[in-house]
Amino acid sequence: QVQLVESGGGLVQAGGSLRLSCAASGSTITRRTSGWYRQAPGKQRELVAQITSTGNTVYADAVQGRFTISRDNAKNTVYLQMNSLKPEDSAVYYCRLDLFSGAPIWGLGTQVTVSS
Description:
mainly beta; 7-stranded mixed beta sheet; 4-stranded antiparallel beta sheet; 11 strands; 51% strand
């Protein structure tokens, strides 16, 4: 059974940084697309950043230049480095792993709160 466990969220002041981690078990992240999404209260879940099986990255306009997604295949972990955080970045951040078939796998999420 594939599982994703996020960690690294917390409370930070505006302008600060956090690094989120998403550890996968039951399946390798290699050769798969994985990504970070976020959902703020009253809003839809939205893509933050994605890294494809070939290492190509995609970012939402709102985080371009501030966030960096990366992957450590040896640790089977995906990271999201978040710099210059803003209050509007506050949300629950979810990790997602696309499988070769079937529905993608989601983690349970980690809360990020940015105070002004």
